[in-house]
C-alpha cells in the first residue's frame, strides 16, 4: 500500500521529462529487474487530495505507481495495480521491457494513466487496463531517445480518455509500434 502524501516519497527530476517524479516503486539505472507474483500494489489514490491544477510539475502533487528510468531488461508479470494517485506505470528511456498478465485499475484521481511507455524493445501482452485517463500511452519526450519496436498485444483497455494513444509528448522518434489483437471498451 502506498503512503499518502509526497512527504513519504523522494522526488526527482530527469532531463527531457515532464516535471518532478515520485512513485511507490522506483527503478533508475537498473538492469535485470522483475516484479512478479499474484499480489496487489495499491496506491490508495482516493486518499490523496484532488489536484487543483497541474502547474506545479508534479501532476497535482501525487506519486505514480511504478516508475523505471534509464533501465534495461525490466519484467513485470502477473500482479495488479489499483488506484495509483497519479499515473500507474511509467517507463522512461528504458530498453527491453516485458509486461505480461497485469491488471491495472486506476480511476482514483484525475489524470490516471494506466501505462506510459517511452522505451524501446517492448512487449506488453495479456493485460487488462482500466484507467481514468489514457490506458496505454506511447510517449517521446527525449529527442535523443528513439521509442521503437513496441508490441502491444492481447490487451483490453478501458478509458475515460484514450484506450491506445501515441503522443501527448511527441518530441522524438517513434517507430515500429504495433497494436495487435487489442480491445478498446468502455470503462467499468
Please outline what is shown here.
The protein is mostly beta strands and 188 residues long.
How would you describe this structure to a colleague?
The chain has 188 residues and is mostly beta strands. The protein contains no helices and 18 strands. It has strands at residues 12-13, 20-21, 23-28, 31-36, 40-42, 64-69, 72-77, 80-82, 89-100, 103-106, 115-125, 128-131, 136-140, 147-153, 156-159, 164-170, 174-180, 183-185. Strands 3, 4, 6, 7, 9, 11, 13, 14, 16 and 17 form a ten-stranded parallel beta sheet that branches. A hairpin with a 6-residue loop joins strand 1 (12-13) and strand 2 (20-21).
Oligomeric nature of the chains: single chain
Summing up helix and strand content along with how strands pair, one would put the structural category as mainly beta
The count of helical stretches stands at 0
Q: Which term fits the overall shape?
A: globular
Largest sheet: 10 strands, parallel
Residue windows where pLDDT falls under 50 for at least 5 positions: 54-58
Strand content: over 45%
Cα end-to-end separation:
23 Å
Q: Total number of β-strand segments?
A: 18
Radius of gyration: 15 Å
The topology string of helices and strands comes to EEEEEEEEEEEEEEEEEE
**Helix content range of the residues, please?**
under 10%
Residue-averaged pLDDT: 91
Amino acid at each position: 500500500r502506498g503512503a499518502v502524501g509526497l512527504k513519504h516519497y523522494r522526488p526527482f527530476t530527469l532531463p527531457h521529462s515532464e516535471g518532478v517524479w515520485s512513485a511507490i516503486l522506483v527503478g533508475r539505472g537498473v538492469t535485470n529487474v522483475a516484479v512478479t507474483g499474484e499480489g496487489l500494489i495499491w496506491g490508495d489514490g482516493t486518499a490523496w487530495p484532488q489536484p487543483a491544477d497541474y502547474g506545479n510539475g508534479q501532476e497535482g502533487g501525487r506519486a505514480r505507481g511504478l516508475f523505471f528510468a534509464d533501465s534495461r531488461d525490466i519484467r513485470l508479470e502477473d500482479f495488479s495495480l489499483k488506484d495509483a494517485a497519479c499515473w500507474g506505470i511509467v517507463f522512461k528511456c528504458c530498453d527491453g521491457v516485458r509486461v505480461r498478465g497485469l491488471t491495472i485499475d486506476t480511476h482514483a484521481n484525475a489524470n490516471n494513466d494506466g501505462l506510459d511507455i517511452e522505451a524501446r524493445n517492448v512487449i506488453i501482452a495479456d493485460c487488462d487496463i482500466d484507467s481514468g485517463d489514457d490506458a496505454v500511452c506511447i510517449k517521446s519526450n527525449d529527442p535523443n531517445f528513439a521509442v521503437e519496436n513496441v508490441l502491444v498485444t492481447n490487451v483490453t483497455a478501458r478509458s475515460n480518455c484514450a484506450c491506445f494513444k501515441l503522443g501527448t509528448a511527441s518530441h522524438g522518434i517513434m517507430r515500429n509500434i504495433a497494436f495487435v489483437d487489442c480491445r478498446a471498451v468502455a470503462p467499468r
